[in-house]
């Protein structure tokens, strides 16, 4: 690996070894050396407590922030008070990093190197304040590694031994000469390189030797029993077992750290106290704690661009004229594919919300998923809110299955429901239940109709632009960590392909016919493989499975799509109307009244009549009764007597619904005519916008 350093910001306050004084000489010397080697560098003489000034110097000179190095010791601890050491080593690093953090996040790249010390890792006589500050840096670095990961901002920590102004006062000259900084710099340069994927690591380095450190924990021993007091004598009697590092574990995160405690709680209550509560990453206590936990709420803002991008991501093409309604925003029937609902809710997974749930340690590079979706989306922009709950954790022996229920809302109205299932390899065997009544079950295939598509090799690269940024689908090295020879296609991309097949074969590409979909992701799809969907229809349910044509391996199994019945379908399947676009709106209003009628009656308390015209003639009549019972929709003059009647053309009606035409302007221009209680027109928004969702 050859690294060429071109832009470097050098910060040194120039203090002496006791923390006093100030000089530009140290920083200037380093800058001169870098420039002599053909690099570009700029000096900064501010204290690290002026982090904003330090970062601004780098931005003014180079335009971006790439790496932060904190390798500046001020003085021997015995000569400084506690506050000064904390300010320089811990607070100074915090201020400099905070000043650079958002720049790194926005540019989707950053490398932060914290400098701790053996005194912080192991402790050292007479250096209590220095040791505390240096170990504090390690805690800061570990958290930054977690928070920065999704932005490609990685943070690692080094504990170097090198000759410096500080060590030359306590070491013989020949030793200082042997511990050159040149023997530390290569490690730092590699950790800063964009190809280096190390994150959250701790390294000791010096004299050309590099070693990585990690935590290790004994398997421990539980020293209390149910309904009995815990005594110091019990601790004493089992001290050897508590401190026995035979078969030690190596927790890699706070979830694993807490796991043993959660397991003990479960074992004590069930009188099954054992010696190794850390044996499984998803032990019974942890899974019990996780069930019912709410994952942090996520927001998803979208417009027609995201809808089109998703359609392209699941294989829509302008080569097929039927696809244009999903690819062109000005198409008269433009709309989202029904399965776009998964995009809004997947932010719960991609934004790391699951990592905050107690009792879970999940590796998303491996496993299968199950998804059940209820979705009816006719509008193509807005902000949706998704709330997730852990529904269950199942023990599958070789792994654990996590069920996650996600409800997505538009305002206060439930818009769609997703159920994700994540298979966590190696996390089973904790004695938990194997099945759950909350899992949606499919049916064995009895397949007839077949469709086949050939996703291009770059399909995963396109699909990930819809928001699924998991590097498993683009990064060969990350895929290798998951046991794959190459990046694999997103399971939800295969899911979208299969859903398109059903939409075309059995619903005439009409997204309003879609009601629900369920599928289990059985096997991965590799770039270049073709997908074949096999389908058969029973009533309003279409059963399907998806195979890789070349290998005949099933990749989507136990799947089905529920469709709205023909009588519920808009436009071309209704007995009247002459191809009116407004039919779609009234069909959706009818569905909303069925589920939310009582609430609408309470809010509106009126009967509305509609006369829809086309070419100057009445083409359809509707009555919306939101005054009695739980509300109703009638074609023609059914329901109660209209309190107000609207007459409008089919085209103008759609423009009002879509927000392109203001109702008041339509009224004053003569496009919208009103008879009866004109003040009730103010409640149009409740009916057309808040509940029709168009």
TrEMBL record:
Keywords for this entry? Answer: Fatty acid metabolism, Lipid metabolism, Lyase, Oxidoreductase, Peroxisome
- Which InterPro entries does the entry mention? HotDog_dom_sf, MaoC-like_dom, MFE-2_N, NAD(P)-bd_dom_sf, Peroxisomal_Beta-Oxidation, Sc_DH/Rdtase_CS, SCP2_sterol-bd_dom, SCP2_sterol-bd_dom_sf
Gene3D superfamilies to which the protein is assigned, alphabetical: 1.10.287.4290, Hotdog Thioesterase, NAD(P)-binding Rossmann-like Domain, SCP2 sterol-binding domain
Q: In which pathway does it act?
A: Lipid metabolism; fatty acid beta-oxidation
Annotated MaoC-like domain residues: 457-555
Where would you say this protein principally sits, based on its record? other
PROSITE patterns according to UniProt: ADH_SHORT (PS00061)
Specify the Peroxisomal multifunctional enzyme type 2-like N-terminal domain's residue ranges. 300-426
Q: What cellular component GO annotations does this protein have?
A: peroxisome
At the top level, the lineage of the source is: Eukaryota
Q: Which residues form the SCP2 domain?
A: 591-689
State the family named in the UniProt similarity comment for this chain: Belongs to the short-chain dehydrogenases/reductases (SDR) family.
List, alphabetically, the PANTHER family matched.
Answer: DEHYDROGENASES, SHORT CHAIN, SCP2 DOMAIN-CONTAINING PROTEIN
The name of this protein is Hydroxysteroid (17-beta) dehydrogenase 4
| The organism of origin for this protein | Salarias fasciatus
């Amino acid at each position: 690996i050859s690294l060429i350093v071109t832009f470097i910001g050098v910060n040194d306050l120039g203090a002496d070894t006791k923390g006093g004084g100030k000089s530009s000489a140290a920083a200037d010397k380093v800058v001169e050396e870098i420039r002599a080697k053909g690099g570009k560098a700029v000096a900064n003489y501010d204290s690290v407590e002026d982090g904003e000034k330090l970062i601004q110097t780098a931005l003014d000179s180079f335009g971006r922030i790439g790496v932060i190095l904190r390798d500046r010791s001020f003085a021997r601890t015995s000569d400084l008070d506690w506050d000064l050491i904390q300010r320089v080593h811990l607070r100074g690093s915090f201020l400099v990093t905070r000043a650079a953090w958002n720049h790194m996040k926005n540019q989707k790249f950053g490398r932060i190197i914290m400098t701790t010390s053996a005194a912080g890792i192991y402790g050292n006589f007479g250096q209590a304040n220095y040791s505390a500050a240096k170990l504090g840096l390690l805690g800061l670095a570990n958290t930054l590694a977690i928070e920065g990961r999704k932005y490609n901002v990685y943070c690692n920590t080094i504990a170097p031994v090198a000759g410096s102004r500080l060590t030359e006062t306590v070491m013989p000259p020949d030793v200082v000469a042997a511990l050159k900084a040149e023997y530390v710099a290569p490690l730092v340069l590699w950790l800063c390189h964009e190809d280096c994927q190390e994150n959250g690591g701790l390294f000791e380095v010096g004299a050309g030797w590099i070693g990585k450190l990690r935590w290790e924990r004994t398997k421990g021993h539980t020293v209390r029993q149910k309904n009995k007091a815990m005594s110091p004598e019990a601790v004493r009697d089992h001290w050897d077992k508590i401190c026995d590092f035979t078969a030690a574990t190596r927790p890699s995160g706070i979830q694993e750290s807490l796991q043993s405690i959660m397991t003990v709680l479960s074992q004590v209550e069930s009188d099954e106290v054992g010696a190794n509560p850390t044996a499984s990453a998803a032990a019974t206590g942890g899974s019990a704690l996780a069930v019912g936990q709410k994952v942090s709420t996520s927001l998803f803002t979208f417009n027609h661009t995201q809808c089109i991008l998703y359609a392209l991501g699941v294989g829509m093409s302008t080569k097929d004229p039927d696809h244009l309604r999903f690819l062109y925003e000005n198409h008269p029937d433009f709309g989202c594919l029904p399965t776009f609902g998964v995009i809004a809710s997947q932010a719960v997974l991609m934004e790391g919300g699951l990592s905050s749930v107690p009792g879970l340690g999940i590796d998303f590079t491996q496993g299968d998923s199950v998804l059940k979706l209820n979705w009816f989306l006719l509008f193509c922009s807005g902000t949706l809110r998704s709330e997730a709950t852990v529904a269950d954790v199942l023990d599958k022996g070789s792994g654990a299955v996590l069920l996650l229920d996600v409800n997505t809302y538009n305002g206060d109205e439930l818009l769609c429901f997703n159920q994700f299932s994540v298979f966590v390899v190696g996390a089973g065997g904790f004695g938990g239940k194997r099945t759950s009544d909350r899992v949606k079950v499919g049916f064995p295939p009895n397949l007839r109709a077949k469709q086949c598509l050939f996703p291009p090799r770059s399909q995963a690269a396109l699909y990930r632009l819809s928001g699924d940024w998991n590097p498993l689908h683009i990064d060969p090295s990350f895929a290798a960590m998951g046991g794959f020879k190459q990046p694999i296609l997103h399971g939800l991309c295969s899911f979208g392909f299969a859903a398109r097949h059903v939409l075309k074969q059995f619903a005439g590409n009409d997204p309003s016919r879609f009601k629900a979909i369920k599928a289990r992701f059985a096997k991965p799809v590799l770039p270049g493989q073709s997908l074949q969907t096999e389908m058969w229809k029973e009533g309003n349910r279409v059963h399907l499975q998806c195979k890789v044509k070349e290998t005949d391996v099933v990749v989507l199994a136990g799947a089905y799509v529920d469709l709205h019945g023909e009588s519920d379908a808009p436009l071309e399947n209704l007995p009247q109307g002459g191809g009116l676009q407004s039919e779609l709106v009234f069909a959706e209003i009818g569905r909303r009244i069925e589920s939310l009628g009582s609430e609408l009656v309470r809010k509106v308390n009126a009967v509305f009549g509609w006369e829809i015209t086309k070419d100057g003639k009445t083409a359809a009549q509707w009555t919306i009764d939101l005054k009695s019972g739980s509300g109703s929709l009638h074609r023609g003059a059914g329901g109660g007597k209209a309190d107000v009647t609207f007459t409008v053309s089919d085209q103008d009606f759609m423009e009002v619904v879509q927000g392109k035409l203001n109702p008041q302007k339509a009224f004053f221009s003569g496009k919208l005519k009103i008879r009866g209680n004109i003040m009730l027109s103010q409640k149009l928004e409740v009916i057309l916008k808040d509940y029709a969702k168009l």
